[in-house]
Amino acid sequence: MPEGWVDLQVNGYGGVDFSSPGLGVEQVLAAARALRERGTAAFCPTVVSAAQSTYRRVLPVLAEALEEDPSLPGIHLEGPFISAADGARGAHPAGNIRPPSLKEFDELYRLARGRVRLLTLAPELPGALELVRHAVELGVVVSIGHTLADSREVWAAAEAGARLATHLGNGLPLQIHRHANPLWPLLACPALKAMLITDGRHLPADFVRVVLAVKGAQGVIITSDSSPAAGLPPGEYTFFGAPARLEPDGTLHNPQTGLLAGSSAVLAGCMAWLSGLGLLSEAELALVGRENALQVLGA
Q: pLDDT band at residue 2, thresholds of 50, 70 and 90?
């Protein structure tokens, strides 16, 4: 594995959308080359909740790209087995979200030629725990995200084999119960490493401080959540079937809802912002930006 940062969640880059039905292998390879030039040595192309026809198109394309480029260790399926509730589903199209299904997951796994490496799901959904156990048996790392799970459901998912929390602190409604919400069990469960988007927009510094205080550097993985708009000039775009506005300061949001629509940052920018907080040593920065992700991937 080449030196550099390792990112478990990249939705696209430079106008290349890994969830677009028009995706081509050369587009994926071009995005990977561009990201390597910007310090991302390896990353998991991430596919958001999509129509079955889109999965049939993009998963074989991504699998072929993975065979050609060793900097792509596996595919991250972020959905479609997530909460459909507003806020919890984030930027995922509501019509593409489905209940957990072993049959559908196996079909997605087959389309990806067995190259699914990470699955984000909501453990409170009927059938989710069975899917966690099934995915883990196939060697897929399961992460909890886009969820409104309660404490019992989070701990049950960890017991079933879940090992990560996808972009902790994001993918939640703006208003949640002060105690009965997923944040506390996701923080409290020692089996779960927390993925954080430290682009300076998704999370306030104090939240990052709290997560590091609870989990330690060994329990945190920094991700970019890079959108296809990353690397593009400010302007109006459409991604995942919704409008997105990239502001001159780098903020990427849906102008209709005002909510964030992914990140315009790459992992090097996220690591620079985190480093600027002065919380971690160089060795600890290497842990959260590279080594922990490699360990999760078994690399």
A: very low
Q: Which domain holds residue 137?
A: 5-297
Total number of domains constituting the chain: 1
Domain of 219: which CATH number? 3.20.20.140
Q: Tens of pLDDT along 148-181? A: 999 999 999 999 999 999 999 999 999 999 999 9
Q: Where are the alpha helices (DSSP H) in the chain?
A: 25-37, 52-68, 102-111, 128-137, 151-160, 183-188, 205-215, 267-276, 282-286, 292-297
Query: Is the per-residue pLDDT at 241 higher than 90?
Result: no
- Of 117-126, 141-150, 220-229, 252-261, give the lowest mean pLDDT range: 252-261
HSE of 172, CA atoms in CB hemisphere, 13 A: 23
Q: How far is CA 53 from the centre of its chain?
A: 22
Q: What angle do CA 116, 121, 127 make, to 5 degrees?
A: 105
